[in-house]
Amino acid sequence: MSRKHTDRMTEKERRKLRKKRGRKRAFILISELIILSVLCVVAYGIFKLDMLDTRTLDKEKLEVYKDTGEYTNIALFGLDSREGELDGGVQSDTIMIASINNQTNDVKIISVFRDTLLQQSNGSYEKANSAYTMGGPQEAISMLNRNLDLDIQSYVSVNFNALVDVIDELGGIEVNLTAEEAFYTNGYAAETSKVVGQEMKDIKEEAGIQLLDGVHAVSYARIRYTEGNDFKRTERQRIVLEKVAEKAKKANLFTLNKIVDKVFPQISTNLTLPNMLGFAANAAKYNIVETSGFPYSVTTSEEVADHEGSYVVPINMADNVKRLHAALFGDELYEPSSKVWEVHSDIISLTGITEDTLEMQTSFGGEAANEESQ
Question: What gap in Å lies between CA 30 and CA 40, rounded to an integer?
């Protein structure tokens, strides 16, 4: 608008024009502040992400079977890493699949028993946890996709130290223990405390709910010498994961920031910054609605052809995979791939274990069972 035209305006029109210009400047200022805030968040995210041991995996070698649609599936590996190794050369003591329903934010956690006899990339059959030793996360993910008809492309690997630090920063977790579990938790904690460089004070060796610090919580999750052996151990691992998730959802930003600073350097992942920000934005909405162990029908055997040691053997591998897809994705009519049927036949040939074999108990009721036993 020209100066001459402005001079002919009434005072009322001038005030209206100034108000309009003020609103425009305010809008521009607010827009600039929003953009600046977003850039700051992204910059902060990049800075934090730089603390992670990030890896790029060759997607062509992950043996993704087929897209599971609205579900995001992530492999979680807990490593017995005494020297901080994260990318191979160590066994994955914990193998889990976290399946997120992107429509409902429901999360299901499946533990894959680490001693399960499964096909490796060279066609041989070894324990599931050997894949990470031989080829790091890429081989471990492809092992899961190959044997279970999955589409996992992302992973997170952590060692003992990281989980101890997370639980300590959250103020510990309350777990309902049996007297036997309390006894073995102290026994394992003696070693765990040395590995992570912390002092240890024994918990009470009695049944009941106890507040476990990081050392004792991790030790509880490592116990194998009670009824249920490794099957029960994976159940304890899922209990610890659920307890940590519950407390993390209620933690303040200061605590979460401390956890990030301590733990990120101890994590290996191929998740990107957009992935991280997306998960962070929905963290409070996620709910763990189901946990279980895989295979569902199993036995153990020390008589595997050309193998030594004890193995967890799936009874009817194809049916186990059917049940997995029904549990994770609600696909009750799922038909396994030719690869799964190949694995199915090979396992029978190597072990002699058929559909008629009596299966072992792999679920023990978690904390509910502890409450009933008291």
Answer: 15
Q: Which amino acid is at 367?
A: E
Task: Count H helices and E strands in the chain, helices first.
Answer: 12, 13
Query: 207 versus 84: which is more confidently predicted?
Result: 207
The helix (run of H) or strand (run of E) holding residue 125 is strand 125-127
Alpha helices, DSSP H only, in the chain?
3-7, 11-49, 130-148, 160-169, 179-196, 214-222, 229-250, 253-263, 273-282, 317-329, 338-351, 366-373
C-alpha to C-alpha distance for 362 and 294, rounded to whole angstroms = 9
Residue 11 neighbours by CB under 8 Å, 6+ apart:
none
Q: What is the pLDDT of residues 78-96, one digit of tens each?
A: 887 666 556 656 778 899 9
Structure confidence by residue, pLDDT tens digits, 294-338: 999 999 999 999 999 999 999 999 999 999 999 999 999 999 999
pLDDT the model gives residue 365: 59
Q: Is 144 in contact with 150 (CB distance < 8 Å)?
A: yes
